[in-house]
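QA checklist item 7 of 12: single-chain prediction sanity check.
[x] sequence parsed
[x] length recorded as 297
[x] structure emitted
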Amino acid sequence: MPTWYPMVMGREVMLATEHYLSAAAGARIFAQGGNAIDAAVAATFVEGAVNPHMHTIGGEAPMLIYDARMQRVVVLNGNMTAPARATIEYYRSLGMSLVPHQGLLAAGVPAAFDSLVTALAEFGTKSLAEILEPALVIAEQGFPVHAGLAGEDPSHGEGLMAGAGASIRHFAEKFRNEWPSTARVYMPNGEVPRPGDIICNPALAAFFRRLLDAEAGARKSGRRSGLDAARARFYRGDIARDIVTWSEAHGGLLQLSDLASFRTRIETPVAVDYRGVRVFKCGPWSQGPVFLQQLRL
């Protein structure tokens, strides 16, 4: 199929991301001596800043990783877990026959940060401060809004893009009426931004700095201790308390014990041989096994 995009070739590393700024962040980490996991984690943090409608630090981050030292493939089960109070009986007491698919009653323990820190601790080489720097700069200084986030196709004026269901434009009224803190970030003048407008996220930047302060206080004991300190502040410290306080104030189910007990699991992948190639996927909590079954048809 003809394309205007040039073929990209290289000799040492390759990065593939949704947004060019996240690819640039990963390339920067490579240039600073980081490995593939360092670059991937840095790129993921940037994706959460520039594509919040696709990925955020409050979501999930499952991974397949090849450990070159051990010559093995591992899975990081970076899926969120349901709050202990999210029981069938509780939802039925609210008159529900199905678990909600959105809103605070559907929210689980934020898994992405623990998964990313686990990847850094087990397979990376850099500190959280080094990895977070690109995302921190973007959060503090801003980034140009792209058409997908705004919900506007630049080739059709005000026309909505096919994927605009997750855009600022689609949720503008909800932001204004129900999510004022979100509106302050993504609609700073009360209006949907246009592609090219600059958006800063000072709240996200302040959150990053709280994590980095925790890491800095423990770095004398080594890189891993610093990562553990940042993780502890998120899941057992004041950040966890802030999350739970806000959740409870708005009808959510999260408790401090839910966050404190959360831990990313390192698992063995499922795999099949396909035409001489060993194909690895995540376990039955993903769509991986179905894909492998399709390969064996």
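[x] summary fact logged: DSSP finds 13 helices and seven strands in the chain.
[ ] second reviewer sign-off
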